[in-house]
Amino acid sequence: MVVVMAPEATQQDVDAVVELVRAAGGDAFVSRGVTRTIVGLVGDVDAFDALNLSNRRGVLDVVRISAPYKLVSREHHPDRSVIRVGGVPIGPDTLTVIAGPCAVESPEQTLAAAHMAKAAGASLLRGGAFKPRTSPYAYQGLGERGLRILADVRDETGLPVVTEVIDPASVELVAPYADMLQIGTRNMHNFALLQAVGTAGRPVLLKRGFGATIEEWLMAAEYIAQRGNLDIVLCERGIRTFETATRNTLDISAVPVVQRLSHLPVIVDPSHSGGRRDLVVPLTRAALAVGADGVMIDVHPDPRTALCDGDQAVTRPEIDDLAHIVAVLSPLMGRTLTRPRARAGVGPGTR
Amino acid sequence: MVVVMAPEATQQDVDAVVELVRAAGGDAFVSRGVTRTIVGLVGDVDAFDALNLSNRRGVLDVVRISAPYKLVSREHHPDRSVIRVGGVPIGPDTLTVIAGPCAVESPEQTLAAAHMAKAAGASLLRGGAFKPRTSPYAYQGLGERGLRILADVRDETGLPVVTEVIDPASVELVAPYADMLQIGTRNMHNFALLQAVGTAGRPVLLKRGFGATIEEWLMAAEYIAQRGNLDIVLCERGIRTFETATRNTLDISAVPVVQRLSHLPVIVDPSHSGGRRDLVVPLTRAALAVGADGVMIDVHPDPRTALCDGDQAVTRPEIDDLAHIVAVLSPLMGRTLTRPRARAGVGPGTR
Amino acid sequence: MVVVMAPEATQQDVDAVVELVRAAGGDAFVSRGVTRTIVGLVGDVDAFDALNLSNRRGVLDVVRISAPYKLVSREHHPDRSVIRVGGVPIGPDTLTVIAGPCAVESPEQTLAAAHMAKAAGASLLRGGAFKPRTSPYAYQGLGERGLRILADVRDETGLPVVTEVIDPASVELVAPYADMLQIGTRNMHNFALLQAVGTAGRPVLLKRGFGATIEEWLMAAEYIAQRGNLDIVLCERGIRTFETATRNTLDISAVPVVQRLSHLPVIVDPSHSGGRRDLVVPLTRAALAVGADGVMIDVHPDPRTALCDGDQAVTRPEIDDLAHIVAVLSPLMGRTLTRPRARAGVGPGTR
Amino acid sequence: MVVVMAPEATQQDVDAVVELVRAAGGDAFVSRGVTRTIVGLVGDVDAFDALNLSNRRGVLDVVRISAPYKLVSREHHPDRSVIRVGGVPIGPDTLTVIAGPCAVESPEQTLAAAHMAKAAGASLLRGGAFKPRTSPYAYQGLGERGLRILADVRDETGLPVVTEVIDPASVELVAPYADMLQIGTRNMHNFALLQAVGTAGRPVLLKRGFGATIEEWLMAAEYIAQRGNLDIVLCERGIRTFETATRNTLDISAVPVVQRLSHLPVIVDPSHSGGRRDLVVPLTRAALAVGADGVMIDVHPDPRTALCDGDQAVTRPEIDDLAHIVAVLSPLMGRTLTRPRARAGVGPGTR
Hints:
The structure is a homotetramer.
Chain A: E1 2-5, H1 11-23, E2 27-32, E3 37-42, H2 45-49, E4 59-63, E5 83-85, E6 88-90, E7 94-100, H3 107-119, E8 124-126, H4 144-157, E9 161-164, H5 171-174, E10 180-183, H6 191-198, E11 204-207, H7 214-226, E12 232-236, H8 254-261, E13 266-268, H9 270-274, H10 277-290, E14 294-298, H11 318-332, E15 336-337
Parallel strand pairs in A: 7-8, 7-14, 7-15, 8-9, 9-10, 10-11, 11-12, 12-13
Antiparallel strand pairs in A: 1-3, 1-4, 2-3, 5-6
Helix pairs in contact in A: 3-4, 6-7, 10-11
Organism (chains A, B, C, D): Streptomyces durmitorensis
Pfam families (chains A, B, C, D): DAHP_snth_FXD, DAHP_synth_1
EC number (chains A, B, C, D): 2.5.1.54
C-alpha cells in the first residue's frame, strides 16, 4: 500500500500516518519529493484498511498494490485448478462443453435438447428451472418440476446437470438435483446467495455480473471460497457497454486476464453475450482459441417456440458446426475434449 | 409492437405473422415498402410477447413501442404519488432529506449522526445494520444489534428509520424495526428480495443498480408493485461508466426522465454517486435543482474512524451548507421542506 | 511516481531501476515489503516517463501520482481564471449564458434565434456554419455564408459570436468572423485542430469528447495552452454510457471535479447532453446549481423545421423559464448574470 | 421508417404526418391501436429525414428501420470485397498480418522490426511517423524523416507500408510514401480527414473510435467511400468500457457483426485493445478464430526502449508463437496466409 500525501500536508500529518501504521504492527517508509511525499506501507493490508488512512489529515490518496482476494488468487496457488462436476473435469488440460436449453419447458424438449447438446460435444447439461427475469411478466420457470425433469434427463443421457439458484432459500431444494449450481449474472453481487452456495456441497458456476469488473468478480468468488467451497468455475458472459448491436459485449480478454490472476477455471457463454444465434459459432471459436477452459451454449430443439431467449438458441445446423469446432480446436490448444460419461450417471455429486 | 420483415421474407412469411397475431386475439396491419415490409400489431402486448415473433421465418426484428411496466407507469396514473414513511411524506410538493451514517457502529455514533442529520434538514434517519460489501473481508454490519440501536435513536430523536435489507430471509427480522426498507444498488436485480419486500408491509427505497438502465430499474419497481406494495421511492445513486475521477457517474438526467415515465417519487444519493466528500454539497444542489423529491446523504460524527465509506461522509461544516441549501432551494422549487416530527415517534409504520 | 516491483524481482532488478532514475537526475527510495518492493521516485516526471520503466525487468507496474498536465492545472495557478469573449467575461464570479441555433440556416432564422437567446438571458450567440455530422448525408452547414450571417446578427444585436471550427485549414477562414472558436466533441482528440486554435488569437470553447475522461479533456486543453493560448473555456456536454433514455449522460459531477483540478472556467451544454427538449430546463437548473460558470443552449424559432438537432432546441415557453432560472440562481450562487453589451459591437476580438 | 404517434395525438396530427410524407413523394400506412397509432412510411428515407417528423405535433418517436449507410453496406453489395495494398490482398479468402513498430524511431529499429514482422508472418509493414498522442509532452514521431525510413525499409524487405495520417494537410505529404493510409482511433470522427483520404488514391485502414458504435464506424467509412474511395479496411481495436484491467475492451463480436453489415474487410488490432504484451498472442488467436480477415500487431526489437506503447509490443519469443498461430489457423478458417512479396517492391500503389 502506498499513501500519497497532499501538497499542503505538514510534517506532523506525515508523522501521524507513520505512527498509525506502526501501531497497527506495520512499517512505513517515507519518500519526500519536491511537491509530494509518499509513504510506502509494509505489513498486513487488512490491518491498514481498518485505519481509514484516506480520511486522515493531509492524505490525498491511498493506492492499493496487491489484490484484495486471497483464496482464489493465483499468487499463493500457482497451479491452475481442476474442478470436477459429476465426474467431468473442467480445467487447464481439458475443453468442456456445457449445453442445454435456457429454460426447462417439458420432458420432451429437455431430452431433445440434451441429445443436441451431446451431438455438439457437450459433457454437461445446463437447464434452468428457476429463471431470474427482468420483467415480472416474463416466463419464470417450472421450479421443482423442472428440476425433476433435469434429473430424469441426466439418468437417460448420462449428462450431469448444471442449474441455476436464484435465492438462498431455494439452495437446499435445488442442490440434491444438481451436479453444479449456477449463479447468474444478476446475482453475482447477491452476497447471501454466494454464501449459501459456499456451504451447499456442490461445485459452483459463477457468471460475471454484466456491470462488474474482473476484480469484483474474483471478490464474489472469494465470498464462496471463504465458506469452504473452492470448487468454483468462472463464466464470462459479456459486459454492458454503449454498443447496442449485440446484447452485451463479450469481454474475450477477460479469459487470459483471469487465468493469470486466479487458479480457477474460466469458461465463456457465447449465447448470452451476443444474444444472437448467428454469433454463437464465431464466438465459440474465439473463446476456445483465446484459451477458455470450456464454453456454455444455449440449444433448443425449436427456438421459434422457446419460452426464454429463443433468439440466441442454436439448433441444426449450428450443432454440427460446434461439434466440428470443438473437435478441431481441442488438440490445437493442447487440450482433451471432455467426453460424456459412457452410461447413465448414478446421481449428483459423483466425483 | 412493430414487426420488421427481412428483405428476403416471402408473402407466406408475412401471412404467417398476421395469422399468429390474429389467433392471439390481436390485429395486424401490413405496410409494404420497396425493400422492407412492416407489420403493425394492435392488441395485448403480453400475448404478442408469448408468440416469439422474432424467431419466426422472415422476421428481422420486433420493435416494442410501449413500456413493459404497467403498475409503476405514469401512463395510467398521471398524478405523481406521495409515499409516507413513518408519517413523513415524499412526493411532488415536498423536499425530503434522509441522512445518517452509512453503517451503524455504536449507539453514540448513531445518535450523534442523527443529530447531525437533523441539523442538515433531515426528517428521516438512514443507517445500515446489514452491509453488502464487495469484499468478504470488509465490515459487514452489526446485524440485529444495529437495528435495536436505530430503533432507540428513533425514539430519542423522532426520526423514522430507513435501513437496508440484503436477503429475503432477513426481511422478517428487519421490518419490525424499520419505517422503510432499502434495497441497495447490488440487489436491484435480486428478484427474490424484491418480491419479499413486496409483501413486508413497509415502504421501500429502491436504489438503481449501477449497471442498470432506467427501464430495468422501473421493471424492478414493478416486481415490488406486483406483490401489492406501491409504496416505492426510487433513488438514483450513480451509474458505472469509463470515468474514474468519481466512484460512479451521477445520472442527474434520470430524475426528470423517471418523473415523466413513472408516478413514483425519485430522490438522489449524492454521497455514493461521487464517493467523495467534496462533491456532496454541489451534487445535492444539482439534485434539488433538477427537481428531485429528496436526497439521501451520508453523515458521520468522525469520518476518519468510519467503518464504511468514510471518504464520502460529511460532517461540520458541510452540515451547515446542506441546511442552507435545502432551506433556500425548497421554496424556489415550489416545495415545502419536510420537517422532522415534533416529538419522538411511536414506532414504525405510523402513517 | 511509484514503481511497483513484481514478487519475483531480484535485488539486481531493483538496483537497475534506482540507477536509471538517478542517471536521469532523480532520486529513488526503496520500500521493501513482505511480498512486494516499491520504489518511490522524486524528480522530473517527464524524464522518468522517458525511461520506460514499466518495461524494465522485474517491474510490475508504474503508478503516476501527479497530473500529466501543467499549464491548465490549478496546482501552480490556484486562482480560477476569467476568460473574456468579445468583452463578455466567463469565470468564477459571473454566470454566462451562450445561446443560439445549432446550425445557421438563414439570416431571418439566425436573427430570430439571437433575439430568443437574449430573452433567455444570453450574452453570447452560438451558431454553427460548419457542422460535423455523423452521416455524410446530413446537413453540413452553410460554410462562409453562415459566418457572414453570424457577423451581421452580431452587429444587429451586440452579441459576440461563438462558432465551431472543424478543420485546421479553415481556422484562418473562421477566426476573423468569430469572437470565440468552438471545438466540438468529436474533435476533442483532433490534435492538429487543437494546435491550430492555439495560435488563432481567439478564445476557445473546448467541448469534452463523449468518450473522453476528464484527464484526457484537460490534456486536450493543455495542447491548446502549449501553443500560447490560455483563453480556454471547457464545456461538459455528456458522455456515452449504456443508458439509452437520453442521447448522452450529462456528467454533472465533472463541473466541481474540473474546477478543483484546473483554473479554467467550465460550462455545461444541457441541450446536447440530453438530446431532448423537455430536459433542457431541468438540466440547466442542475448545471447552475452545481456551480457551472455558464451554460450553452440550443434555441430555434421553429424547431419543427430545424435542419440540425431540432429535437433538443428550445423555443417559447422554455425561453421564459430559462430567463427566470438564470435570474434567480445567479445571486444564490454568488454570481452576477453577464448582461449583453449595451449596443452593437465593433467586431470580434474586442476585449 | 415507422412514426409512433403519442397517446394524445389527434386525427388531425396523424393526417398531417401522412400528408407530409405523401408531399415528399412517399406513402404512409396507418395502424390504429388501442392506445397508440403508428404510421409506416414507404419511400426515400433521406427525403423523410428532411421532414423532421419527430418534431411534428403528436409524434412520440420515429423509428428507423434500414441502415443509414449505403456504399459500404452489404445490402446492395452482397459479395465481400478484396482490398489490395501494394499488391497484397485483404479479404474473405486470405489472412493478412500487418506488423511493425508503433513509432518509427530510427532506420535500424525499423528494419529490425520489419524482419521480426516477416518472421511473424506479416506481409505488410506498419509504422508511425506522425503520432497522435494524448499528451503534448509525449513523443510525436519523426515526421517526414520517418516516412523516408519506412520507404527505405520497404525497398529492403519488400513489405508495403501502412502508416498513419493525422491531419488533412499532411495527407498529400504522406500519400506518396504510403501503400495504405491509416486513420487512428482518435480521428475516426475527424470528417475533414476522412474526406481527404477519400481522394488520396490510396487504400485506407480505418480504425474504430474507442467510443464509437459499429454504426458510427460504418458511417465514417461511408464518408471516405462517398469521395470515391471504396478501398477501405476496417480495424477493430477495442472500445472504452468500465473495465480497467485492460486498456480497452476488445469487441471481438464486432468482427462477425460488421462482416454481416458491410462488404468491407475487417481486421483486429490485439496490441492496442489489450495494451499488454501478454495478451497479444491469445487475442490474435481469438481474432483469427472469430473470422477476422487479418490482424495488426506492434513489434519492437527492444520494447524496453520503445518511445511509444512499449508495454504492448511483442518480441521474441512471441514472434514464434504468432508465426505458428497464423500458419495453423489459416487453413482451419479456409484462408490462405498472405505471403510477403518475393522481392523488394517498386514503390507504393502497385496493385
